[in-house]
Design goal:
single chain, about 220 residues, alpha/beta, Rossmann fold, Arc Repressor Mutant, subunit A, 2 domains, six-stranded parallel sheet, about 15% strand
């Protein structure tokens, strides 16, 4: 396996230097470019096609959410990990809809950065533990306030297996191989799961999975 190629984008040089130092302690990882604003990040990603782009949310010229949206469109093979100070579900929702697969709080980056990059580079989702706990607590409280039962309990055992694999970013063909079923069967289950949980996109599936504690 070749080197994991990483793009770093943050408007603070000191932050980029610190992240680079941590990342390049891994001999098989290399930071191929740095950017100090969102527009430059998009340009670098389009030209260099890195495996992972680590983006700050609050960047000049183009914010991290819009930069994520453009990078995913222009360099589909690049996985985006967003760095932010905000442990807020609204931010998580926007970032997932933009196409990011990871959400890392800056105050836990020194502890979780390696694990986060490793996860998103494999197509998996990653959320800082503090964010995952916050979303789960909010979700449980919302259910209690509304006096309703979690629809997740209505899923069959097979549907729960497939739900987790979808939330982890696996395609229908991959799921079919793992479970020894046909891709069309996976698609049927996917449609049934989304109907039961009232979900309408891959981003909503991931958000629900984090809320529910199925993935982190």
């Amino acid at each position: 396996m070749g080197q994991l190629r990483i793009l770093l984008a943050d408007d603070h040089t000191v932050v980029r230097q610190g992240l680079r130092k941590v990342l390049e302690e891994r001999p098989d990882w290399v930071v191929v470019a740095e950017a100090g604003n969102g527009r430059d990040a998009v340009k670098q990603a389009e030209e260099l096609k890195p495996d992972v782009a680590i983006l700050d949310v609050a960047m000049p010229l183009l914010n991290g959410i819009e930069a994520t949206r453009q990078i995913v469109k222009r360099s589909p093979g690049t996985r985006v990990l967003v760095l932010t100070m905000h442990a807020d579900e609204a931010y998580v929702n926007q970032i997932l809809k933009a196409g990011a697969t990871g959400y890392l709080l800056k105050d836990s980056a020194d502890v979780d950065l390696i694990q986060a990059v490793a996860a998103v580079s494999q197509g998996k989702s990653f959320f800082s533990p503090g964010v995952a706990r916050l979303m789960l607590d909010d979700y449980v409280r919302q259910l209690a306030d509304k006096g309703i039962t979690d629809r997740y309990e209505s899923l069959s055992e097979r549907e729960r297996e497939i739900f987790q694999l979808i939330a982890e970013g696996k395609a229908n063909k991959e799921i079919a191989i793992i479970l020894s079923i046909s891709p069309s069967t996976v698609e049927t289950h996917r449609a049934r799961i989304m109907e039961k949980l009232d979900l309408h996109s891959a981003a909503e599936i991931v958000l629900y999975a984090v809320r529910r504690g199925v993935i982190r």
